[in-house]
Amino acid sequence: LFSICLLVGAFSMKGQYKNAVNLDLVSFRSISLDYERFLYSEDKHHFSMRGGLGHFGMGIGTSFFIESNYGFGKHHRIETGIGAAYAFGTLFDEPAQYVLASFRLNYAYFAKNNPMIYRIGWMPIFERSGVYPEGGKTHWEYITIGIGYRF
What we know:
The protein is mainly β. The protein has one helix spanning about 1-10; strands at about 20-25, 30-40, 45-55, 60-70, 75-90, 95-110, 115-120, 125-130, 135-140, 145-150. The two termini are about 20 Å apart.
């Protein structure tokens, strides 16, 4: 799915950055590094796909994720996004696997002639794993802080 979105977004966006790499902290429990492709970008709107790797603290392990984002605003932007992740590792010395779904609501600052992106946001995560056999649990408390570089 991510590869298809990259191919769809291969058209030119005059004067706009097309790619970014981002480093995100999620409530100081996990860290992720991702690649972002801007499929559509104008002065006041953008649509992008992000995909990358994350690491959860507390012994949980590694995650792979994909996310789609829409942002609006010129330099001060509001972004919304939805995503999914697969995480694996150990919890209490037992192998553990997780399927996660998330919603993201960010404030982002995109400077006109500066390739940096600064983000802060809220990201509730729905977790489905063997830890919650009754169907899953939603974690409402996650705050994200990120920095990115566009190219």
